[in-house]
Amino acid sequence: MKLSTKGRFAITAMMDIAIHERSGPVTLVGISERQGISMSYLEQMFAKLRKGGLVEGIRGPGGGYRLARRPERVSVADIIDALGDTMNLNRLKQHTGEIEEEPPLTEQLWQEFDQKLHDFLDGITLDQFANHPQVQKVMGKPDVRQYRPRHHFIFNHAA
């Protein structure tokens, strides 16, 4: 399993929903603005996340997305798996033309590593992310990317 940019963005978007859905469905536009992820990228990801049963789309005015499961029941591994963003260990195989009775040692090691990484990520939930002290600290601050002062004050320091 590898954590690609797509995987990181999907985790970030899902965490955004976990944090903001208390006030209703979360729009992709809102996620895009808060997290700096392009709309087209989000649309592609959310098609897979919806198909994977992790989010539900809400239609109509005030619509958007919400988690299909409680945040403590959605793991980071679930998100990665829904994207189909797993390491392809077959590319590590050496195709010798011979049928091997046992996979090469390096392939066995990568498979074990992949499983341990998957198990580790399966133990981390959106709820843990959303309630992490650093996330809570950031959530308490205004989003500097959205803040644009309306008035510019120029102070004249005449002596």
How would you describe the overall organization of this protein?
The protein has 159 residues and is mainly α. Strands 1-2 form a two-stranded antiparallel ribbon. Strand 1 and strand 2 form a beta hairpin. Helix 1 crosses helix 3. The C terminus is likely disordered. The protein is 47% helix and 5% strand.
- Which structural class fits the helix and strand makeup? mainly alpha
Whole-number tally of structural domains = 1
- Using the coordinates above, name the CATH class: Mainly Alpha
Radius of gyration: 21 Å
From the N-terminal CA to the C-terminal CA, the straight-line distance is 65 Å
Helix-residue proportion: 40-55%
How many strands, which pairing sense, and closed or not: the largest β-sheet?
2 strands, antiparallel
CATH architecture: Orthogonal Bundle
CATH topology: Arc Repressor Mutant, subunit A
Please, what is the average pLDDT?
Answer: 79
Uncertain segments are 87-96, 141-159
CATH superfamily: Winged helix-like DNA-binding domain superfamily/Winged helix DNA-binding domain
Please trace the helix and strand order, writing H or E for each element: HHHEEHHHH
Strand content: 5-15%
What general outline do the C-alpha atoms trace?
Answer: elongated
Strand order of the largest sheet: 1-2
Number of helices: 7
Strand tally: 2
